[in-house]
Amino acid sequence: MQQIAYFLLTVSVLVVWHELGHYWAARRCGVRVQRFSLGFGPVLLSRVSRKTGVEWAVSAVPLGGYVAMDEGRSSADDRTAASPGHFSAQPLSNRAFIIAAGPLANLILAAVLYWLIAVVGSTATAPQLARSTEGSLFARAGFTEPVQVLSVDDESVLSLRDASMRLLSRATARDQVNVRVRPLGATSMDGKVLTLDFSGLSRADIDGNILSRLGMVPYAGPAVIAEVSAGGAAAAAGLQPGDRVLQAGEVAIESGADLASIVRASPERALSLTVLRAGQTLQLSIVPKLSAGSVRTGVIGVRFTGPERVTERFEPLAAVAVAAKQTWDMTAMTVRMLWQIATGQAALSNLSGPITIADVATQSASFGLISFLSFLAVVSVGLFVFNLLPIPQLDGGHLLYFAYEAMTGRAPSERALLLGQRVGLIVLGLVMAIALSNDVIRRLPAS
Question: Where are the transmembrane segments (predicted)?
Fold first, then answer.
């Protein structure tokens, strides 16, 4: 129910804003708007504005909404005789403006959300990476020890999210990128430059969590214990909050994830731990207990402090440039990904449908308002790009017809419009089927 609620909230906010763009542009051009509906299907509630004559309605199917305009005559030859309040009687430039205003509203909303997030500020994970997976692209580039990411192509980064977005953009573009890093704990401020070459990525590489597949591993923070569970193996061994685990046997422990991996593989087997406590080094022996799950793994009952956190906040004027860049980067990456999917350069599994949107909406909301607003901005950019695709049922399809009219001086024939509608329905049906299939596959348990 929570997922459904957040999905409906996401769709309602973004689609209503989209339709408000059409509504505002139509009113600016003098077109009569008959109804503005939240949702589709039978009208449940409605109210007609005495001032504008617009019927504001709530309909039964809460999946979006629509603006019903007075279409008037559809024939280009009769347009001059039609009422100026008819959509079809408007000049071509006005009709294109009204149609384009919906997607543009989504783009503006994304920019406003990014600006608001930048001004209010958000807490994010520090731009730190752990030792990369052996043999991976990141490992071959030199990410073989925990590092702090300082810049990507000479642009400084403030958070792991920032660094990830820039690297993801370069990866989908199959570019080469220079990353300046500094080993964690190093005193030098200059660091060193590591070069990631994404030019050789295959279609299979551009699939799912791309950076993780290529060996990028976020640093989980040092193995500093934040909490010890009563009655657990850690409590029995004498571990305390604030202890930092340096070694497990002869293996150096760089992060809590390193120790967790060793513990999981060592149920009911004694481990020798080297621990730093209040400046003193201690040797402790611990026997991980067998977990209660069906898989035989070890547990010791501790929680680690986690990765370092940073705060991103900008002055209102500086936030304008930040928001503009984020909006541009997200738009460019979305367009690039769709193009690569369409041309077979990226896997179809990158398409997501309503189930994934509901999942991510719920997850982002669980992290707080700022996280949810960031999610809304990403989806709003996606709606902007998707609605401009040259498919007849979408705004991009209407703009394609208008482009034809501008070049030929006449509107497309009824036969062409009907054929376009049929082809568009098939294309949209296929896209939705693929997206829903991907959603279902993601939910299936891994074999």
Answer: 6-25, 96-117, 367-389, 416-437
* Total of domains in the chain: 2
CATH of residue 273's domain is 2.30.42.10
- Cβ burial of 34 (10 Å; 0-12, 13-18, 19+) is middle
**What confidence score (pLDDT) does residue 78 get?**
46
pLDDT tens, position by position, 9-23 = 888 889 889 999 999
In sequence order, what are the residues at sequence separation of 6 or more whose Cβ sits closer than 8 angstroms to the Cβ of residue 174?
A: 198, 199, 200, 201
pLDDT per position as a tens digit, 251-291: 888 888 888 889 998 888 999 999 999 989 999 999 999 88
Q: 10 Å Cβ neighbour count for 235?
A: 16
Predicted local distance difference test score (pLDDT) of residue 95: 92
Could you tell me the two tokens for 312? 């991103």
Q: What is the pLDDT of residue 401?
A: 93
Distances (CA, A) of 112 to 222, 242, 327: 37, 42, 9
- Give the residue from 362, 392, 438 showing the smallest Cα distance to 6: 362
- Beta carbons within 8 Å of 425's beta carbon, 6+ residues apart: 393
What's the burial of 187, exposed, middle or buried (CB within 10 Å: 0-12/13-18/19+)? exposed
Within-domain flag for 239 = yes
What was the pLDDT predicted at 82?
54
List the structure tokens of 194: 């590591």
Separation of alpha carbons 8 and 447, rounded Å: 32
Partnered with residue 225 across adjacent β-strands are 304
Task: Give CA separation, 322 vs 225, 233, 386, 401, in Å.
Answer: 36, 48, 24, 36
Which one, of 289, 229, 218, lies nearest residue 256 by Cα? 218
Return the active site residues.
Answer: 19
Strand partners of residue 280: 277
Q: How far is CA 4 from the centre of its chain?
A: 19
Residue 273: inside a domain, yes or no? yes
Specify if 249 maps to a domain: yes
Whether 231 and 215 share a structural domain: no
| Across 228-248, average pLDDT | 92
Residue 435 pLDDT level (bands cut at 50, 70, 90): confident
214 and 229 inside one domain: no
Calculate the alpha carbon distances from 425 to 62, 119, 161, 411, 412 in Å.
21, 42, 37, 21, 18
Residue 132: which residues within 8 A CB-CB, separation 6 or more? 138, 139, 143, 144, 215, 216, 217
